[in-house]
Write a structure and sequence with these properties.
The protein is an alpha/beta fold and about 250 residues long. It is built from eight helices and four strands. It has helices at about 5-10, 35-55, 85-100, 120-125, 155-165, 185-190, 200-205, 215-240; strands spanning about 15-20, 60, 105-110, 130-135. A four-stranded parallel β-sheet has the order 2-1-3-4, covered by helices on one side. Strand 1 (about 15-20), helix 2 and strand 2 (about 60) form a beta-alpha-beta unit. Helix 2 (about 35-55) crosses helix 8 and helix 5 (about 155-165) packs across helix 8. The radius of gyration is 19 Å and the shape is globular. The two termini are about 35 Å apart. The chain binds zinc ion. Zinc ion binds near residues 36, 37 and 158.
């Protein structure tokens, strides 16, 4: 954890992989805090890295980036938008810092649905010697076996995860809205094969999309165990990988 490390440790450790947790600051229904995505990203990154370290990978977790793409939520008080172009500039600076310091692999642990780093990585990769990949922690494992109805924003999955890692910040579920999300009227958009960003205040009355009613800490804990195990495996493999020999 870079935020907890001191110079002597950092100077004397040969890090193979850096992990960058990336969240957002936004409303999460009435029962979860604005920092939900950041708390999740930091937790998943730290736990995955801890497991990877124990398996021999030299990995460092960078501080969480707390601002996500929230252009669809600009009319929700204190949802703090960071545009994709700003995120790309930030990512570029971080990657070039690591490159100059001899750390050649970077894993982004993304926690926010509005963030999409793939195109940024495509643009950045030809000018940067750091190998960069991105993981959305909430869908790197199939969530269906773990939840009745995983839901999306502040739904059963996300609420269960927060109950497991930060119960003191979760309000009683009796205060939560139902998280009902209105769908597009245009069929292709409703079915998902056509895509456009959603205007959040038009689709949700409580800022949630997904019903948190059946959330339980135990569900979140079991799911997180699978998620962090899988991401730690990625870190371990990546740490050992030869960047000149990445393909079968
Ligand atoms: Zn969230």
């Amino acid at each position: 954890m870079l935020e907890h490390a001191t110079w002597r440790t950092v100077r004397d450790t040969q890090y193979a992989v850096a992990v960058l947790p990336w969240g957002a600051t936004e409303a999460h229904n009435y029962h979860l805090p604005y920092g939900t995505d950041n708390i999740e990203a930091a937790h998943v990154a730290a736990e995955a890295a801890r497991r990877a370290w124990d398996a021999g990978a030299r990995v460092v977790v960078l501080p969480v980036v707390p601002f996500g793409v929230n252009t669809g939520q600009l009319d929700i008080k204190l949802c703090l938008n960071m545009n994709p172009s700003t995120q790309a500039a930030l990512l570029t600076d971080i990657a070039h810092s690591l490159e100059a310091q001899g750390i050649s692999k970077l894993v982004i642990v993304n926690s926010h649905g509005g963030n999409d780093f793939r195109q940024m990585i495509r643009e950045l990769q030809p000018t940067c010697g750091v190998f960069i990949c991105t993981v959305n922690w909430w869908n790197c494992v199939d969530s269906k076996p773990y939840f009745d109805e995983p839901g999306d924003h502040a739904g059963e999955l996300e609420t269960s995860v927060m109950m497991s890692i930060a119960p003191e910040l979760v309000r009683p579920l009796s205060e939560a809205g139902g998280g009902h999300a209105r769908k597009f009227k245009v069929q292709g958009l409703r079915d998902g094969w056509a895509w456009a960003p959603r205007q959040w205040t038009k689709i949700s009355d409580d800022t949630g999309t997904g019903n948190p009613a059946n959330a339980m800490a135990e569900k979140g804990e079991r799911f997180l165990d699978a998620v962090t195990e899988r991401i730690s495996g990625l870190i371990v493999e990546l740490a050992a990988a030869n960047l000149d020999d990445m393909y079968e």
